[in-house]
Amino acid sequence: MSRIPPRVPSSSTVGAKAWGPPLQPRPYVCGWCGDRSPGAEGLEARRHYSLPPEENASGEITFAVVNVTGHLRFCEHCNYPTFIETFLQRPELDRQYPPPSFGEPLPGLPADLGTLYEEARHCMAASAFTAAVMLTRKILLHIAAERGAPAKALERFWTALEYLFTSNTVPRTYASWVDRIRDLGNETNHRIQLCTKEKATDSMAFTTMLLKVLYVLPAQASSSR
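Now predict its structure.
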């Protein structure tokens, strides 16, 4: 269901204001470079929108006017622009384009794994939760390939996962992590249903932990010697 509130004809829009300098800084996480910008440079404009009438739980027809502020802010780190729309009375409708990536960056991953992980983060940011879960499933397959799984093992998903354990790439103590990623991925891949944000967040959390244990933490340990 769309998060965008219904727009009414321009005749119902009052209090329009031309774009001008921002009245105050608005810190945000840049969707381009991932850094936190103070949001002091840019433009903003405010409008009041009268929303279509709604029926409340008591059966009464209610009318609402929301104050909307559009912010065009320039990142002080990468200089790229970001559009932010805030709704004073409906903060759950606030949105940002491009949105910040989900989770945290993981430096030191092999090239293909790094690309897949970043794609999964972008999918989460874009609310493409089904695609994100399918990518975490694919990441498991790429881990097996990167750690030397023979071509025969890579022909089937379950044999690729078994290789992770028999080769001791993934200790058995982390089997529950792999099982959770696999189960969510299989559910999304083989059933005619969409994945929820909660399940996608769960899959991303386990995937992030697994990648940290296998690649990020060993790299940090080596560099600190």
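The first strand starts at residue 13 and ends at 14.
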